[in-house]
Design brief:
heterodimer, A: alpha+beta, five-stranded mixed sheet, globular, B: alpha+beta
Chain lengths: 154, 789
């Protein structure tokens, strides 16, 4: 089995994986980071979005070995020193989550959007979030939260 | 009142764990020595199972067991029961076929459970499942209502001739015939209520554990009502006392009805855990969810509305055939009957209504309650009929509705279809919605759209629904095999903090916040002194769970009742401490006060005295903990008006919802932020049903829409920014005055959307478009009208 090394939420990790192991399986089953969720088997739902070298990716669609030598950030690594990230805080304030299952992927996706386009508007946000399904919120409050976080992000 | 009490838009207590990835959903749980279960499912809609050969699978690496229906039968593990018994109009009970967790001789839908493989890892279980050889002899199948009722159709169950489960009626047929005989105008409409797949984003999952030492079973499962699951597993499957079985529904990622029901896999993980002596986990792949989660809707209906010369509704006739799928799911028999036929009065004073419903078995996944459950189907048919009548009579569609509304001074209003509405003001929600939606200025927007080559339409619906399930005696008379009350426990700690134990279950609804707000209001405590416990049969004594928008109206009422018991007992203690008569002590602002004086004891001081009863009333039990069971006196009747505006591209048939306004009367609101969120979510599912979603089977019963690639889920870019508001009339028969909000969005919006689509196309001669109004359907409707025109 190949051994890979990556930086996970800021800390170095070295682990043996099977070649077929998906990144999401490594995170959830091997490393106990269950904040990243699996909602489908066709790369449609976006519940598994994490950051690879700062960019959002669907962790169900990457092999763990592809992450060797790279930096992975998950929802568990977003808040700093107990302080919610501005996007997490905005989701809380705008009631942008209900059951919470899509939320980690949604937040990680939105963080990437705002890193690229801090002032993203309604249409841009809705278009960007096409890769993240939510069945609870009707998306409206998620859009509001991302907009608000965009205004707040320096 | 506390600033965090009833009516405050308090931010949710539960958010932080979900936002930081710290939630505990069932598939997040891991146990030492755990094994994984994979279900071998039927690839055929209907087939005889001639043989199952599992030797190769049993020899595969890591495999601990391969179990089949024969093993289940040998161990005398019971079938999965259904929760309602409906009788046909001739008095005969419905056909109730057996529903084993694993089939023995025949599969009846794609996805039916044939065997399970238990192995040390998920991959090993999956790989070994491929080695299970099943000899199938394929049989002819029926997948749709049309196929099921066709003469000579193949039978799903030999004991159900014509594939009929029951043939049920409600209302006065003779009076309805008489009403039609004297009508000036009769309109009719054939509608399909499209089959939907719930698709909560968390797939179903289960973790079963068995303790050899004690004989105790523990099940963690993605359930909306763990107590019901425990009752069914204990009484029907394993035949063990309920105290030997603990069912926990931890964080659950959405339900929408699909996680109410007791599913085979819940039984299978427990049985497998007992068999292999290890904890056993199962998590559905999404493709499994599509073929094993109960679907929703799937009605084919004919409706007729009779009007007099003034446009007053005289009579309504409904003939529906509803698809129940291959087996009777937990609530299935109730959905197209008492949650459907009873809704046909709507907001209107129609004096005579007759509803006839035949339900059929098909070789498809079982159909059961999905957000709204029967009520969206009724409201859709009724509101499409009202628009059709407006067009036929030339009476404005808003005026026609107003003219027929039950008026505010007519409550309580007894409908001709069993329900008695307690309160409402349908004119108020209508007026508010029209105003908010800019109804009066619509024609200018239509004309402007025309200059861009777009067809713009506007539509509305006015609806009443029934929720807050339900008075137990009434439900029992209607065929329910369980009571539908709710329980609440309130445990006050010696320092005055409070734990609430509710039998409802929150899987997105925010009970941990709203139930705490009720406590804050009643006891004058800050929210962080209140903890709400739900979803664990070991912690809450009993409960019926969350569905049918019942949690607040029934569970919240139980909580208020339990809190009152706490307050009353506290008053005895306070009176003793204050050396006052009990009748002179009042509880206000979190303090027991001797009326008219400044002598008072705080709630915390009284709680402390209850647990450290050194100075204490003689004969009073120490401690401060109360439980209440609340059985509702009636259903609750949320109502409202939804207005939708669409733009259609006539070249492509693409419909965009450009605005959707919902003004709902959900009774007293505990948390307006959460109410708004609930309406948003319902609207998205309503627009999804109207424009995007549809479960498709081919004639052989193969599920064509078996993944998110083939089933169109609403995405952020498909939906507009919602305009929502509330106009309140309190429920008159529960202590909170709340009616329920979980389903209104999904109930009111589909007819508003389709009425808007038809409005946009009416000038072309289009009179109806079936859901989902996909670009292809709309394009064909436009072309068809042009060809006829």
């Amino acid at each position: 089995m190949p051994t890979i090394s990556l930086k996970l939420n800021g800390a170095p990790v070295t682990v043996e994986v099977e070649g077929r192991t998906l990144l999401v399986e490594l995170l959830r089953d091997r490393l106990g980071l269950t904040g990243t969720h699996v909602g489908c088997d066709t790369s449609q739902c976006g519940a598994c979005v994490v950051h690879l070298d700062g960019r959002s990716v669907k962790s169900c669609t990457l092999f763990a070995v592809e992450c060797d030598g790279r930096e992975v950030r998950t929802i568990e690594g977003l808040a700093r020193d107990g302080e919610l990230h501005p996007v997490q805080q905005a989701f809380h304030e705008a009631h942008a989550l209900q059951c919470g299952f899509c939320t980690p992927g949604m937040v990680m996706s939105a963080v990437d959007l705002l890193a690229r386009h801090p002032g993203a508007g309604e249409a841009e946000i809705r278009s960007w979030l096409e890769g993240n399904l939510c069945r609870c919120t009707g998306y409206e409050n998620i859009v509001r939260a991302v907009k608000a976080a965009g205004r707040r992000t320096p | 009142m506390s600033q965090d009490g009833i009516g405050a838009a308090v931010k949710r207590k539960e958010d932080r764990r979900f936002l930081t990835g710290a939630g505990h959903y069932t598939d997040d749980l891991s146990r030492p020595g755990q094994a994984f279960l994979h279900v071998v499912r039927s690839p055929f809609a209907h087939a005889r199972v001639k043989a199952i050969r599992a030797d190769a699978a049993r020899r595969a690496p890591g495999v601990l067991a391969v179990l089949t229906g024969a093993d289940l039968a040998r161990e005398k593990i019971g079938n999965i029961p259904t929760g309602w018994l409906i009788h046909s109009k001739d008095g005969t009970p419905m056909v109730e076929p057996p529903h084993p967790a694993l089939v023995t001789d025949r599969v009846r839908h794609v996805g039916d459970q044939v065997a399970v493989v238990v192995a040390a890892t998920r991959d090993q279980a999956r790989e070994a499942a491929v080695l299970v050889e099943v000899d199938y002899e394929e049989l002819p199948a029926v997948a749709s209502v049309a196929q099921a009722v066709a003469p000579g159709a193949p039978l799903v169950w030999g004991q159900a001739p014509g594939n009929t489960c029951y043939d049920w009626t409600l209302g006065d047929e003779a009076a309805t015939d008489a009403a039609f005989a004297k009508a000036k105008t009769v309109v009719s409409l054939d509608v399909v209520n499209n089959r939907l797949i719930p698709n909560a984003i968390e797939p179903r999952a289960a973790l079963g554990e068995y303790d050899r030492a004690t004989g105790d079973y523990t099940l963690h499962t993605t359930s909306q009502n763990p107590h019901l699951t425990r009752l069914l597993l204990a009484a029907f499957s394993f035949g063990v006392p309920e105290h030997k079985l603990r069912v926990v529904a931890p964080d659950v990622g959405g339900g929408f009805g699909s996680k109410i029901f007791h599913y085979a896999e819940e039984l299978l993980v427990l049985w497998a855990a007992r068999t292999v002596g290890r904890p056993v986990r199962w998590t559905a792949q999404r493709s499994e969810s599509f073929m094993s989660d109960a679907h929703g809707r799937d009605h084919v209906s004919h409706g007729e509305l009779a009007l007099d010369a003034d446009g007053r509704f005289l009579g309504l006739r409904v003939r529906t055939v509803a698809n129940l799928g291959a087996y009777l799911s937990t609530f299935a028999p109730a959905v197209p009957t008492y949650l459907y036929g009873t809704l046909f009065a709507g907001c209107y004073r129609t004096p005579a209504i007759h509803v006839s419903v035949r339900t059929v078995f098909t070789n498809t996944v079982p159909v059961d309650a999905y957000r709204g459950a029967g009520r969206p189907e009724a409201v859709f048919l009724l509101e499409r009929l009202v628009d059709t009548a407006a067009r036929a009579t030339g009476i404005d569609r808003v005026e026609l509705r107003r003219r027929n509304f039950v008026q505010p001074d007519q409550f309580p209003y007894q409908t001709p279809v069993a329900l008695q509405y307690d309160s409402g003001d349908y004119g108020a929600t209508l007026a508010a919605a029209l105003d908010k939606a800019g109804w009066a200025g619509f024609e200018a927007r239509r004309a402007e759209a025309r200059t861009r080559g777009k067809l713009r339409g506007i539509g509305l619906s006015t609806y009443v629904e029934a929720c807050g399930l339900a008075p137990s005696a009434l439900a029992g008379a209607l065929g329910a095999r369980a009571g539908l009350y709710e329980s609440a426990g309130v445990r006050v700690d010696p320092t005055g903090s409070v734990t609430v134990f509710t039998g409802t279950h929150s899987h997105g609804q925010g009970h941990e916040t709203t139930f705490a707000q009720i406590v804050a209001e009643k006891l004058g405590l800050p929210l962080d002194r209140v903890e709400v416990v739900h979803g664990d049969t070991a912690r809450t004594s009993f409960g019926m769970g969350t569905y049918g928008s019942r949690s607040l109206a029934v569970g919240g009422s139980a909580l208020v009742t339990a809190l009152q018991k706490v307050i009353d007992k506290g008053k005895k203690i306070a009176a003793h401490l204050l050396e006052a008569g009990e009748g002179d002590v009042v509880f206000e602002g979190g303090r027991y006060v001797v009326a008219g004086t400044d002598r008072a004891k705080t709630f915390a001081e009284v709680a402390f005295a209850a647990y450290v009863p050194h100075k204490y009333p003689a004969g009073l039990e120490p401690g401060l903990e109360e439980t209440a069971f609340y059985d509702p006196k009636n259903f609750t009747y949320p109502a409202g008006c939804h207005v939708c505006e669409v733009e259609i591209d006539p070249e492509t048939g693409t419909t965009r919802v450009v605005a959707l306004t919902a003004v709902d009367d959900v009774g007293v609101v505990i948390n307006p932020m959460i109410v708004e969120g609930q309406v948003h979510g319902g609207l998205a599912q309503g627009v999804g049903q109207a424009l995007l979603e549809g479960a498709l089977y081919d004639d052989a019963g193969q599920l064509l829409s078996g993944s998110f690639l083939g089933y169109t889920m609403p995405r952020a870019s498909d939906l507009p920014a919602w305009q929502v508001a509330t106009r309140i009339t309190p429920c008159t028969h529960n202590p909170l005055g709340s009616k329920g909000v979980g389903e209104v969005g999904a109930i009111g919006s589909p007819p508003a959307v389709i009425n808007a689509v038809v409005d946009a196309l009416a000038h072309l001669g289009v009179r109806h478009v079936d859901m989902p109004a996909t670009p292809e359907r709309v394009w064909r409707a436009i072309r068809g009208a042009a060809a006829k025109g």
